[in-house]
Design goal:
With about 400 residues, the protein is mainly α. The protein has 14 helices and no strands. The longest helix has about 40 residues, at about 135-175. The radius of gyration is 22 Å and the shape is globular. The model is unreliable at about 175-195 (pLDDT under 50).
Length: about 400
């Protein structure tokens, strides 16, 4: 198998992972805003997410002179480590499933900031001790502190932006007749000009509500933040679980049994992620949540609108996770958690593609700049803390 052995190689893996993991949420959000049911999108996504792990396992897991190879490990008595890897896949699947709904309620930028910050605060602390403290604590934990501040600022950004939107819609309703409540899921606009509304205007918000799959206008801010915090807690556990799977810090393997390679662990990790996502999303087709319309397997199979984008999102996420774990194996999983600064990428796509925070108040812009500043500092600090596994 191929191993990343240098600090430079590990950082390169983290940077590519940062790009991939910050882009796939934007694709998923785009499809939901175009009206594609999130159940359909996630089922497509999870297929190629597993495919990425299979490709990595049969290529990087089989080349090179390092042993053991991926296929060799499939027949070894390593089930204790396999279970840790699969547990990591389960919590990641739950976190990803939650975020696809949080993106609609909270927005792409804030969802990624808050969930990623919680991931770092909890997950990086756990990884630091699991990695036998190979990262520089005096550098690492100030970075964790920056993420913790970003959680608070992200929540404030969401509340401020929600207030801005409420004021815009209130002003629009006072000037227009025939505007109906979004919770009725009926046509909100009475004028074709709404379709040409600019980013950030009340007309744009109403037209977006008409098109999107998850209706959010009129809903409280608590729902979105609660889903986001749940996702962040789930995300905080998958990296430590993967760390235990590949390094066996708790000595659960029998003497003489080699540790799982990062490629074998990632394969089992992705299989459990796929199985849980398949079960839950097929269930959500027939028993949807958050007032989404019912669907069916037949409807899903015939829904080709946006399928290519959903499949691409799965590949980006799969390869992004794989690169993160490869970097973590070389430089320590605590340092590899720097890819949780992916909101920097997601915020770029959120502003460029979706017009998030356009025409918001000065208060919202100030909080947004503060939130992103904390992330810029945090990602640099976490990468600077990276050590080298002996």
């Amino acid at each position: 198998m191929y191993l990343v052995e240098s600090k430079g190689g590990a950082i390169s893996c983290m940077l590519f992972a940062l790009l991939f993991l910050g882009t796939w949420p934007a694709i998923m959000t785009l499809l939901e805003r175009r009206g594609r049911l999130p159940q359909h999108t996630y089922l497509d996504y999870t297929i190629t997410n597993l495919l990425a792990a299979v490709i990595i396992a049969f290529t990087l897991g089989e080349i090179g002179t390092e042993k053991p190879n991926f296929l060799d490990q499939l027949s070894q008595d390593n089930w204790s480590s396999v279970l840790f890897a699969m547990a990591g896949g389960i919590v990641l699947s739950l976190g990803n499933l939650a975020t696809q709904y949080a993106w609609a309620f909270v927005g792409l930028s804030v969802t990624e900031v808050v969930s990623s910050s919680i991931t770092v605060v909890i997950g990086t602390t756990l990884n630091y001790f699991l990695d036998d403290k190979i990262n520089k604590a005096e550098i690492l934990f100030p970075g964790v502190g920056c993420f913790l501040i970003a959680v608070c600022l992200g929540s404030a950004v969401h509340s401020s932006n929600a207030k801005d939107n409420k004021e815009k819609l209130g002003s629009f309703s006072n000037d227009s007749k025939g505007i109906k409540d979004a919770s009725t899921n009926k046509d909100l606009h009475s004028n074709e000009d709404l379709e040409k509304a600019k980013f950030g205007t009340a007309g744009f918000l109403i037209e977006l509500e008409n098109k999107r799959a998850i209706k959010v206008l009129g809903k409280g801010t608590f729902i979105g933040l609660a889903i986001t915090f749940f996702a962040g807690f789930c995300f905080s556990l998958f990296s430590p679980a993967f760390n235990l799977a590949t390094n066996d810090q708790w000595h659960t393997l029998k003497p003489g049994v080699p540790h799982l390679s990062v490629y074998t662990a990632f394969f089992y990790f992705s299989v459990s992620c796929f199985v849980l996502a398949l079960i839950l999303n097929v269930g959500f087709l027939y028993f949807p949540v958050l007032n989404l319309p019912k669907s069916s397997l037949k409807a899903y199979l015939s829904d080709w609108d946006g399928r290519g984008w959903a499949l691409l999102a799965g590949l980006l996420c799969g390869f992004g996770n794989g690169l993160q774990f490869m970097g973590g194996q070389a430089a320590g999983y605590a340092a590899a958690d720097a890819v949780q600064a992916l909101p920097l990428v997601s915020t770029f796509w959120g502003v460029v593609l979706f017009g998030e925070y356009r025409r918001s108040s000065r208060r919202t812009y100030t909080l947004l700049v503060g939130m992103l500043s904390m992330f810029i500092v945090a990602v640099g600090v976490l990468m600077a803390s990276s050590g080298h596994r002996k």
